[in-house]
Amino acid sequence: ADPRRREGWREVEARLAEAGAAGWSVRARALAEDEEEARAETGDGRRTAQKAFFRAVSLVEEVMRRARAGGDVSFAPARRVVCELVDAVTEDEQALFELTTIHSFDEYTYAHCVNVCVYAVALGVRLGLDRPLLAELGFSALFHDLGKVKLPLALIDKPDEYDAADWDQMRLHPLLGAKLLLSMPRPLDRSLARAAAVAFEHHLGADASGYPRTRRERRQGLFSRVCAIADSFDALTSGRVYQRRPLGPAEALRRMVQRAGTAYDPLLLRLFVRTVGVFPIGTALNLGGGRIGVVWRNTPGDLLRPRVRVAEPSGETRVVELPAGALRA
């Protein structure tokens, strides 16, 4: 086995120990002979998800660059891409959740918007929204951060912690996003109006204690409450802007639950946990015996039995399914 891979997993294990996760120990049974067999189980859904996801990332990049330069923006391609994402989520949401765990610094701003769209649409499916409403929700989520194109790139790409002046600037992006969407030179339709509302409200907080501050009390609409949860989960797990040190997905959920009722709608947050799983994709687990596992997929109907990609001490990887009772929330 490649010694560099073994060393890499030793580092992961050490970091888990520092985080207090070293005591986790479960027994697992093999699910597939190798990773390729596991991938074959969901091949079609995975390919559809990949195409829709990366097409959406490219589109968001183009829209944001044109908006930053003050150019005219056509949202017709965006509506088509959102419909593709809605179809991909309804076909195989787990494949898209796996793609949201890819955090590239260079593409973060664009991928973050797509990740929020994926999570929001998945939550919308759980809410029973029909396809037209899912498309409107996805469109709103895709451009919830459009206002950031009006902020200095040095602020967006700043690697250090923000100071008070930085935060004052960053907190302008919801208002800037709403203004930008409402000022587009085309007839204002319902989806653009809803996207502007989400851009304005997604940091407002479930109890209206967030930002921007308004003269009159304003409560978040349903789409804004959904996007607030999706936005925070992806931001916390990526280690950008609001949380410089990335959190594990399970830890991010725990922190969000602590703010239920203030920052997040409690009922929607509970439904979101059921959507992404108690141990979301990307959660690292110490399986004991020198083995490290990363949650690959969740088991429908049993959130405490995820499928885990395991790294053996030899450096080999395989996919296993945890038996009932192996993990506890």
Give a structural overview.
This protein is an alpha+beta fold and 329 residues long. The chain has helices at 3-18, 35-40, 43-68, 76-99, 108-126, 131-142, 153-156, 164-170, 173-182, 190-201, 222-238, 249-258, 266-276, and strands at 29-30, 284-288, 291-299, 302-311, 317-321. The chain is globular. The relative contact order is 0.14.
Task: Write out the strand line-up for the largest beta sheet, numbering strands in chain order.
Answer: 1-5-4-3-2
Detail the poorly predicted runs: 1-9, 22-38
* Average pLDDT over all residues: 84
Whole-number radius of gyration? Answer: 20 Å
| H/I helix tally | 13
* Helix and strand composition category: alpha+beta
Please summarize the sheet with the most strands.
5 strands, antiparallel
Order of helices and strands: HEHHHHHHHHHHHHEEEE
Strand content: 5-15%
